[in-house]
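Exam revision sheet. Question 4 asks you to relate a sequence to its structure. Input first:
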Amino acid sequence: MLKKLLINGKKIPVPVPIQNLSDAVAWIETHLVRPDHTITRITLDGRDIDLGNDDVLRVPALPLTAESDLRCKIDSPMEICIQTIDALRNLSTAIGRNLKPVAVHLWEYKGSRLSNEARAVIDDARLMIELLDHILILIDRRIDITNVTSMRETIDKAHRAIQVAESNSDWKGLARVLLQQLEEPTLELSHELSSLQKNIYETQADRNWERRAQTVNG
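Answer key, structure tokens:
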């Protein structure tokens, strides 16, 4: 039977009989997870537990004892989303500034393998897609993500065209992709992310107001 656990590094006593991991997680979600927060990581005896990709957290009913070392990380998806947006906005601005010089370099490039300058930009473009995917997973369902989703698809299409040009060692073709397909959505992304972040803050304020109203009325 579980006696204690660690949540965000703090030791928490367990005052109820809990025999397995599934029951432990249910108890944590009911009593220890604040609104707008969620469990983002669970380790049991040093081993990471798969949390799945569903909205509802499901974990196996692994047996627990008084010696079990159960640790949970609880975060606010909204806060993580805002941090990711900040990182992506800075990244997109940096990429947008570098595309023209790299395209000029590629237009004149005669090497058989992609240069380090171009490789860095291409890797950053792939990172943009990964960060966008992360944001779209975390974002509140009430927030309109139509424009961001469309830009993600545009950037992904450009990235696929980049891969084709690179595989054919078509450096002039790669330069055209950077300027004609990647530059505009990359520069627009920073502005769109600022609008998205504003919407997140407004949604968070609305939720806080609703929660206060429910407390007063309750």
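Marking note for examiners. Strands lie at 4-7, 10-13, 38-44, 47-48, 70-75.
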